[in-house]
Write a structure and sequence with these properties.
about 350 residues, alpha/beta, five-stranded mixed β-sheet, eight-stranded mixed β-sheet, about 35% helix
């Protein structure tokens, strides 16, 4: 089988790896590892973002008393992550392939230095033919600092590692035109750049054991595709699904988000996913909003600023808010909040956010 991708990120969701009783499905995990091994042996660089630590720990421990949600997640993941990575180690060892554990937190993506350290670590692993197995470090993450779910994490990893395609494996075939299983509901096979928002089609319910749902997958996929990376949402419970969707001229039923052709720099990719780390807001007038959203590339100048919210330093991430109170982008500021306030409305001074460090929604 011929493949058209060189570097692939694959997110394996909780509902793919979990049985109905909430425990880890080792049979499915083994089948997916076999598929990953086939891709690896065909020269594809693989990054796996894997859920399943909590499910793995839940099946190992029998708690006689009730724990709060954060404590139970920390406990199950602490035990389950060791079990999960050991199972991956054994499964890949059968194919003479090495894998390594990469645990991260949302905070690690908020600093450009930490971001680049993670990227360098994983680049070295790929150079040495080691498959990174990535997951959130739930043992130290608390609610307000957690990723929305591993879909968000996989989007960050995909753009950070500049993959050719991000595969999000769920327990359904893709995004449907209605409720999956109901008459007339069909899989949307292809979503092109600039296509109108289709979120109205999507059910907003969350998966049984994951933290996110299809609306989260859609929003992440659309943003990643806008940054030039193809995204595929497919059914991870189908036999041999990975080779079938990644081969040349694939006809497998799934939803493909076609990538934008416009080039996006590495720093802009980082900024695009940094909204959750914003330390403040820059509010701008209508003229500045029109200029930023126009065809020409422009920076955010103090003359267009009407209000500064929050307490931030130079190089922090800030949200850009238009005159209607709507967020239109995020950027890395050149000045502190104190300095930005002093520059409000001034002409002939340097940008508050330079175009090279500005991402517009």
């Amino acid at each position: 089988m011929d493949y058209k991708y060189k570097r692939v990120a694959i997110k394996i969701g909780s509902n793919v790896l979990t049985r109905k009783d909430g425990t880890l499905d080792f049979t499915r995990m083994s089948a997916l590892s076999d598929q990953l091994a086939e891709l690896h042996k065909n020269g594809i660089e693989l990054i796996v973002v894997s859920s399943g630590a909590v499910a793995s720990g839940r099946s190992e421990l029998k708690i006689s008393h009730k724990l709060d949600s954060v404590s139970s997640r920390q406990l199950f993941s602490a035990v389950g992550q060791a079990k999960l990575i050991n199972r991956y180690y054994e499964l890949f060892r059968d194919h003479n392939i090495s894998c390594g554990q990469v645990l991260t937190t949302k905070e690690n993506f908020g600093s450009r230095g930490h971001y680049l350290n993670q990227k360098n670590c994983m680049e070295v692993m790929l150079e040495e033919k080691v498959i990174p197995i990535v997951n959130e470090n739930d043992t130290i993450s608390v609610t307000e600092l957690m990723f929305t779910d591993n879909d968000e994490l996989s989007g960050l990893i995909a753009t950070m590692m500049n993959v050719d395609v991000l595969v999000i494996l769920s327990n359904i075939n893709g995004i449907y035109t209605g409720v999956p299983g109901e008459p007339g509901a069909e899989v949307i096979m292809e979503i092109t750049p600039g296509r109108k928002d289709i979120s109205s089609y999507i059910q907003t319910g969350k998966s049984s054991f994951g933290r996110g749902g299809m609306i989260t997958k859609y929003n992440i996929a659309r943003k990643v595709a806008e940054e030039g990376i193809e995204v595929i949402i497919a059914n991870g419970k189908k036999d041999n699904i990975l080779p079938l969707i990644l081969c040349e001229n694939s006809q497998e039923v799934c939803t493909r988000f076609l990538p934008s052709n416009k080039p996006v720099s590495g720093i802009k990719k980082w900024i695009a996913h940094s909204e959750g780390f914003a330390k403040g807001e820059i509010h701008i007038n209508e003229g500045a909003s029109d200029a930023l959203c126009g065809e020409n590339a422009v920076s955010l100048l103090p003359v267009g600023v009407v209000k500064v919210v929050g307490n931030f330093e130079s190089d922090d991430i800030v949200k850009i808010i238009n005159d209607k109170g709507i967020q239109i982008g995020v950027g890395k500021t050149n000045v502190s909040s104190e300095k930005a306030i002093s520059l409000i409305g001034k002409k002939g001074v340097k940008p508050i956010v330079h175009y090279d460090y500005l991402y517009l929604d």
